[in-house]
What we know:
By secondary structure, chain A is α+β, with helices and mostly antiparallel strands. Chain A is 42% helix and 24% strand. Chain A is built from two helices and four strands. A four-stranded antiparallel β-sheet of chain A has the order 2-1-4-3, with no helix packed on it. In chain B, a hairpin with a 5-residue loop joins strand 2 and strand 3 (243-249). By secondary structure, chain B is an alpha/beta fold. Chain B has two domains: 44-200, no CATH class; 205-369, Peptidyl-tRNA hydrolase (Rossmann fold, 3-Layer(aba) Sandwich). Chain B is built from eleven helices and seven strands. Chain B has a seven-stranded mixed β-sheet with strand order 1-2-3-7-4-6-5, sandwiched between helices. The interface between A and B is medium-sized, with 18 and 22 residues.
Amino acid sequence: MSAGRTPHPKRWVPTYIVLLASLLILSAALALQYLRTGSDSYLVSAAFVAIIAVYTGWSFARLISLKVAPKSLVTLLKCTSCGHEVVRGYREGDTLFTELDQCPKCGSRMVAEGIFLKEEKR
Amino acid sequence: MCLKSYAVKPGWCVGMNGDTTTNMLLWIIALFTLSFLMQELQIYRIITEVENYLGIIRAARERALLAAKEQVRKYSRSLDPEYVSRKIDKLIEARIIAPTSLDPFGIVKKLKHVLSVSEKTLESEVASLAPAASPHEVQNLVVLLDIARSLNGVYKLLNHYYLVARRFKSLWLLMQLSAAMPFIIEEVRAVEGAVEAFKKSIPIGDSAGPLVAALLMRKYGVQYVVEPVKDTIVAKLAHSNKDIYVIKGRGPGGNTGHYDDAVAWVLQRAKPAVIITVDAALRYEGEASGEVVHGFGVAIGGTGVEKYGIEEIAVKHSIPLYAVLIKMAEVEALSVMTEEVYRGVREGVAVVEELLESLPDGSSAVVVGVGNTVGIPP
């Protein structure tokens, strides 16, 4: 949650892509060796690596389908005279019910009415 | 014994053949060994799984402890950092011993006494370690230590069960641990989520009740605000035709206040027509966060000491007890307040106002904002 952001699980996507590609290449290379030499041990190894690749692919698909919207910490400001509300990113030192900014509409003081985690629009 | 007339020998007869007998014996031995080996493998698999979970909990405990130590050191001036660190290590090991229930009469008073002593002692210890901290910063430090203490307690308890299960290689104990771990991890993550909020002094989901109280105070204005009980404020709203008393923890430090004593203080001055408690309530899976529902009774969690106190007063004076509950998940209750919960708070203010409007003119009421008041000034 440092800097008001929650770590996103999809940060593992590049790792999965590299792992999956390596496994597929290895499996294909072993299958090719089997076709060339006819040795059963290559076939067994290729099948084994392919099973691991399928499992990795399945986990990757689950990760891709995971929908976790990132949230950021925001401060809700409300104008003391016209009631206009503004939501902006939280800044260090923001405290509830303190005057923080000026109203963009009427120029009056704006007070922090809420500090909360807001889902980021994507 | 074999029948020579058979063209194809029956199975039992084949068994008598030298090679086949050895094969059969080998199969039986293999099956017998495998049945044991499978259990051993299963035990090993669960041990690894539980160890991984324990690693997550241990890391959470270390992070919380480090955060608490760093925060205390920020205010410890010239105190030796090693001394501060050792003192905090001792403080998180401190335990609260509940009074005996052999004779349950008066147990709530005893529990209240024990809790009060532990609270005061911890606060004075933290204040001595952080002389540069303001009172509300001390309260936040106390909560940070409480978080580290609770995570330490959870880790030690689970580690104990794990070591016992491993020592006796008890599959059933390990399976129970393994089954409970995902739920425990969820709670640990929730508790850990509170660290950030208390470091920055911003409201958490559980602060919904005090935030409703604070918004009411700001909306109507106050005739006066007093602190008749330690860390608890009572504000009389400047309402045109009703006497509305709002009670909440003082804030903006992380504390919950002593609502029962504050309600008793109000009762010495007025005869409220109703006591309304506003609190965060855990929602079930599938329910929406921030949903506001009505309730009857006293909505206060925790040890039950304050709930008991308010119920006693209400029964003695025949005062109706209403509750306004703002629903949220456990993770949301302990982490920084989410937008859904904040919307629930705004709706909660409207619901309390509706309840107050329904009272006849000239009557009085008490509204208690229950929960941790971190980041919410009086």
